[in-house]
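Technical annex B. To support the medicinal chemistry partners, we prepared a structural model of the target in complex with 5-phosphoarabinonic acid, based solely on the information shown next.
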Amino acid sequence: MISLNIEKTLQFVSKETINGFEPKVKDALEKLEYGSGKGNDFLGWLHLPSSITQEDLNDIKNTAQVLRDNCEVVVVAGIGGSYLGARAVIEALSNSFTWLQDKKTAPVIIYAGHNISEDYLFEMTEFLKDKKFGVINISKSGTTTETALAFRLLKKQCEDQRGKEMAQKVIVAITDATKGAARITADQEGYKSYIIPDNVGGRFSVLTPVGLLPIAIAGFDIDKLIAGAVAMEKACGINTPFEENPAAIYAATRNALYESGKKIEILVNFCPKLHYVNEWWKQLYGESEGKEHKGIFPAAVDFSTDLHSMGQWIQEGERTIFETVISVDKVNHELKVPSDEANLDGLNYLAGKRVDEVNKMAELGTQLAHVDGGVPNIRIVIPSLNEQSIGELLYFFEIGCGISGYVLGVNPFDQPGVEAYKKNMFALLNKPGYEEDSKAIQARL
Ligand code: PA5
């Protein structure tokens, strides 16, 4: 089971201060459990792990098999919560280099619909030209411009390249039950489709088909992923005492640090496979807490990589930050530093040591240096990179986020601020229905 260690925050905020958050955390957990807080129509994620049935999982696995049998590449078209969860899990569990090799055991998963870069989309269509590819069109609203535009290109290319009948087989939609263009298209074209429950917001949807289908196509065990999430759902539930509930302690600690002036939380990993877990976490916490002119700013770094870029800032910049480090206890492979007779690089003192031992010392050395430099350090240890641990981690962060948002006093489940850029973009593009906004925005230019 993943574990949380807040020891290295206690010289910055006292244990009493953290424990002082217990009543607020309890209140937040009750709001989640009884649906009595703001945004209570978006709590479907809370007991999602324990309520997914084996039939649901088998159906997803069957669809995954159809795409695995018929595709070399599967494009996940989605943005924000409609792709980050899948990407986080797939990249955390995948071999970093298999996708570059000729012999593959699963379709390569690529991503679209999360940008409007003409070069990116052009290069994607070029890459797909000689590939047997399928598409998962993921959009809860079914109307997101970035995703719809990419899907328009992908649908046409898939039909042109693979024929209408095969396209119908290898295009899957994951969207609203009734609303939105993605639903209309799926129904008219006869695509296999899945429903994103009304009460599950995008950034909390990784354990619905939104995440589970791409993860299963990539060849990972979604039963184990869910089992991990179920274990964490139990560990972080309303009946667990405050001091034994890791999500409660995480929420209390980060809010205590925030109130003490630590306005930025940096999620840290020492394993590049976790890069997209960082990205998923940034969205989860940023969209959930950053409102009403408050909220911890969620930043993220990959170490050692970023020790050689952001390391300076973290060590000696403005003291408004704290770090949350995801540490992987046991790596999946063994590689030792070789001995070298000439020892020109001076590394023989490491000969025979596991590379991970060196990495762990980098991690410990960094923790001590950053704490000495005034950066509180929360540590999350995951036993190893596998489906069970990642399932635990996802749910831990989800419920930690729900609790934190309520402790902060905001609605963690809406995202009104995301609309502002869309309104301007539509006005600038003269979208029908935006005539008045178009005139107003043109006058400002
Ligand atoms: O968390 C959220 O709600 C957002 O990030 C959405 O997931 C994102 O905007 C995509 O929306 P949609 O799934 O409606 O295309």
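Notes passed to the chemistry partners:
Residues 79-82, 139-141, 144, 147, 201-203, 287, 415 surround 5-phosphoarabinonic acid (CB under 6 Å).
The chain has two domains: 3-37+226-415, 48-220.
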